[in-house]
Design brief:
The structure is a homodimer.
Chain A (H helix, E strand, L loop, with lengths): L8 E7 L27 H9 L8 E6 L3 H7 L8 E4 L4 H16 L4 E6 L7 H18 L2 E6 L10 E11 L2 E10 L4 H10 L2 E11 H11 L1 H11 L6 H9 L5 H4 L7 E6 L23 E3 L2 E4 L5 E4 L3 E5 L4 E5 L3 E6 L6 H10 L7
Parallel strand pairs in A: 1-2, 1-4, 2-3, 5-9, 10-12, 11-13, 12-14
Antiparallel strand pairs in A: 4-8, 5-8, 6-7, 6-8, 7-9, 14-15
Helix pairs in contact in A: 3-6, 3-7, 6-7, 7-8
């Protein structure tokens, strides 16, 4: 079996998240990646459109969950049906990436695999494709695991960071550096120190590697997962044996389980605008400002400022309010101060406990 | 023609208002009086239920507008169809009361007429009926025009006041006093002075008089209106001549046009709980307090206080907000600080100017 990486480029779109932070717009059957948070198309649709100039739709795999699979297929009609991999239940990103790697390897053992999340906003598709091409070239040239490293713009405590070492290459005009270590969700002080140091960057959740390299690292670092993926590949997808095996996979993220412990990790340094739109106020990173806030959908205001006003149907009429998040759908309305927007998760738990499944 | 007042008691329910202050719950076809603002039945239904132990439904007339007539009839199926008088367009309360008086006089020239608004909240029906009976008895015994005078509970600048003079009678155990003068919507200072004086009361918008007395005062004080009502009574209701005559009636309130200038006005002093629910925060006068605010419909909260949260369908989920009014319907959501709730009228004007007739 060849694992040289001289083979085709395949893009794996990770589209599994639940995204309760965008309730009431996000629901079990319509999580964040299916929402048109930038106003027009869904984040998933935009994510695929960004990469299809690089690879044909036949070379795009989407990994998603059972509850949203039908919606994902409807959103991406150009993809062959077999290119949507449906996880019976969530087993975190190492299993997601691993399943895709095993699937790709079966057909193209020398493929290079690019991994991109479905729920990010990257307006400059040209810059992204240049960076992905550089990452793929790095994976081919250097082997090991490759990430895209984002220039940090604030001392964000919700993201993962990576410390960069010496320059190990240059591809497509972009610098490639060795990754010295990863730092997950730091304290405020630590985040500020890393921002000041200049040698740290944000993890992007985007990766490049040959299927040989990732399979080899999974076998070394997560042998139980690799063994499970071997068994999974030997049985018909969707059958009972498949389901049992899938459920038995260890649930661990690719960051914790692989990247932090891998032997040879390098990063392509990128500077393009990027947002993970992590919460309702995060819309401000991806929508034009209106009166110090943002508006999406049918909204009318009288005075007020710095509000996040979103409608998926009903008119939202805001009079004289400030620093408020209002999100209205036909069956639920959320009102929360912007600095408490992350409490939406608590609210969703409250609704679940109250048996309001119709609204989840 | 006898005008003695020995005849039957007839209750006239004034149900004409538009009530834009309760948008988005109130619409052109569903104004305030048709809303279940106390949680169960509409204010109109409750108003009629309060008086029907006093008179049979055949003796209840409702005066309303063309846009809501069908809804009013549906809300009051027990009333004979002819008991709903439909104004082709609003001509204020003098014309409303006058039309009812002319209609009643045609059948019962010696009737006593009680006038009550459809959009007030009076939880104690027994106390109200006692007061109305006292007012009717006063109208029979003393002639002239009789009102119910409410004990003021705050220096309200949005109401009309009346200064009371000497005791002129006692009916059903309630004091009846001469009205010396009326004071419309006073300044803050003036309202506080009247509250302190103890000799001023709030107008209730509720009246009692013989049809002879009110017709005589309308002929004396508003001869153009009385002449128009004479002509109106001589033509078929709803025909072109009727419409032309109605449109030609002077638009003036019964307070300005009649009460302030009438020769003989007395008031029955009442102490029952009363609210005109003048705005969304006014709901606090008629609903039980929850966390310093009120809730109506499908509402869930996490922390927060002193909010007015109302749903007519969608779940309203409020997290960590205070002193806020949120009202949600299937097609519109209002968010406004409670101390700016009166600005809903501005908002409705804005929507009208923007051609959003579907939401008005």
């Amino acid at each position: 079996m060849t694992t040289s990486g001289d083979g085709p480029l395949v893009v794996v779109v990770m589209a599994g998240g639940a995204g309760t932070r965008f309730w009431p717009l996000s629901r079990r059957a319509r999580p964040k990646q299916l929402l048109p948070l930038t106003g027009g198309r869904s984040l998933l649709r935009l994510a695929v459109d960004r990469v299809t100039p690089l690879v044909s739709p036949e070379r795009v795999l989407v990994v998603t969950g059972a509850e949203v699979a039908a919606a994902v297929r409807a959103e991406l009609p150009e993809l062959p049906a077999g290119n949507v991999l449906v996880e019976p239940c969530g087993r975190d990103t190492a299993a997601c990436v691993g399943w895709a790697a095993w699937r790709i390897a079966a057909a193209s053992p020398d493929a290079v695999m690019l991994v991109v999340p479905a729920d990010q906003v990257i307006p400059d598709g040209v810059a992204l494709r240049r960076a992905l091409a550089a990452a793929a070239a790095t994976a081919r040239a250097r082997g090991g695991l490759v990430t895209l490293a984002l220039r940090p713009t604030r001392a964000e405590t919700g993201f993962g960071y990576q410390e960069l070492g010496e320059i190990v290459g240059r591809e497509e005009g972009l610098e490639v550096r060795r990754v010295l270590r990863f730092v997950e969700k730091p304290t405020r002080e630590c985040a500020e120190a890393m921002l000041a140091a200049g040698t740290y960057r944000w993890n992007s959740g985007m990766f490049a590697w040959t299927v040989g390299a990732i399979r080899s690292e999974l076998r070394r670092l997560l042998p139980a997962l690799a063994g499970g993926l071997d068994r999974l590949s030997a049985v018909p997808a969707g059958g009972e044996e498949f389901l049992d095996t899938w459920r038995s996979l260890p649930a661990i993220s690719v960051d914790f389980g692989v990247m932090e412990r891998a032997a040879n990790v390098s990063s392509v340094l990128v500077d393009f605008a990027w947002s993970d739109v992590g919460s309702w106020p995060g819309l401000e990173e991806v929508l034009p400002a209106v009166a110090g806030g943002v508006r999406l959908g049918d909204v009318v205001t009288l005075d007020g400022s710095s509000n996040v006003l979103v409608s998926d149907g009903p008119l939202v009429a805001a009079v004289g309010v400030r620093d408020l998040v209002v999100v209205a759908t036909r069956d639920a309305v959320l009102v929360v101060p912007r600095d408490q927007a992350q409490r939406v998760k608590e609210l969703v738990e409250l609704l679940r406990a109250a048996g309001r499944d119709d609204l989840l």
